Amino acid sequence: MVNLEDNDLYRYTPSLIAAIIAIVVFTILTILHTYRMFQSKLLFCLPFTIGGAFELIGYVGRAVGHYDRVSLGAYIIQSLFILVAPALFAATIYMTLGRVMRATGAQSYSVIRVNWLTKIFVIGDIFTFCVQGGGGGQMASSDPDKVKMGQNVILGGLFLQIIIFACFIIVSIIFHKRLHKKPTRQSVAKGLEWQKMMVTLYVVSALILVRNIFRVVEYIGGRDGPLLRVEWPTYVFDAILMAATMVVWGVWYPSLIRSHGNRMDDAEAGVYLPNVHGTS
Predict the structure, then answer these.
(1) What CA–CA distance (Å, rounded) separates 69 from 92?
(2) How does pLDDT run across 190-245, given as a tens digit for each residue?
(3) Residue 112 exposure: Cα atoms within 13 Å on the Cβ side
């Protein structure tokens, strides 16, 4: 067994094999998402694609950490990029709900005005992104007080992200139930698979929520806690869940809410047929 030094940043030797597998998986998934984004011309999915690149870069940092456990640069890269990547996934997820509402002509079914819906969730997401990034930087400090502060900052960002996600899921469910009960003309258009898109939103949101809850438990335990002293939880409750998120989103892409013969950007511009309730 390798003896851990006082200045060892990981408390263990990062697995090179696990890091390489993660690098390969996230490279393939990021390439897939880049292709799908340009193929479908859905540039609002760019944050999601960048999130995949962040995961890839983060695990490159872990591979470097295998050879040098006291490399501050590699530690910061793996810590920050893996930590904040899900916030980038979330930005695209939040924007997708607004597009579902517009594509189905069911903006009136939202409990929050659609014009504000995306802004509220994305701004909150950007804030949590910055908070977690700042806390992750402090975690790399050799000063115990700064490390503790970094843990608390990250916890605050994660708790806020969980709250935002919970609110997002509630808003989504209310909208879904209302539209299912009283469909609009656009919602039954050929090829507009909005219900599959809503299920996809629930699945990826649940995966990210579980990951965030794991991170909260991890950081509550502190740097010397059981989850930060071993490596496998990072892969089981973070890498695998985020790879699954990318797989699900890559298979059931937001192009599901583009009906045959209609471009999504027409819906984005607010061009709709009158719905069954006579609203526009």
Answers:
(1) 34
(2) 778 999 999 999 999 999 999 999 999 988 887 777 887 889 999 999 999 999 99
(3) 17
The Cα 280–Cα 278 span in angstroms is 7
CB-based contact 70:8 (threshold 8 Å): yes
Please state whether 278 falls in left (phi above 0), alpha (psi between -120 and 50) or beta. left
Indicate the pTM of the whole model: 0.86
Instruction: Look up tokens 């996600």; give the residue.
Output: 165
Phi, psi (rounded to 5 degrees) for 141: -75, 150
Q: Which own/partner pairs from 222-229 qualify as long-range (CB within 8 Å, at least 24 positions apart)?
A: 222/148, 222/151, 223/11, 223/139, 223/147, 223/151, 224/11, 228/11, 229/11, 229/12
Residue 6: Cβ-neighbour burial (10 angstroms; 0-12, 13-18, 19+): exposed
* 190 three-class SS: coil
The predicted pLDDT at position 67 comes to 92
Contact 110, 175 (CB under 8 A): yes
> Measured between alpha carbons, how far is residue 11 from residues 6, 14, 40 in Å?
9, 9, 44
Backbone φ, ψ for residue 226 (5° rounding)? -60, -30
Q: How far apart are CA 100 and CA 119, in angstroms?
A: 15
Q: Which of 174, 164, 233, 236 is nearest to 205 (CA)?
A: 164
Q: Which residues make Cβ contacts (< 8 Å) with residue 94, sequence separation at least 6?
A: 118, 121, 122, 125, 168
Predicted confidence (pLDDT) per residue in 132-165, tens digit? 888 877 776 667 777 788 888 989 999 999 999 9
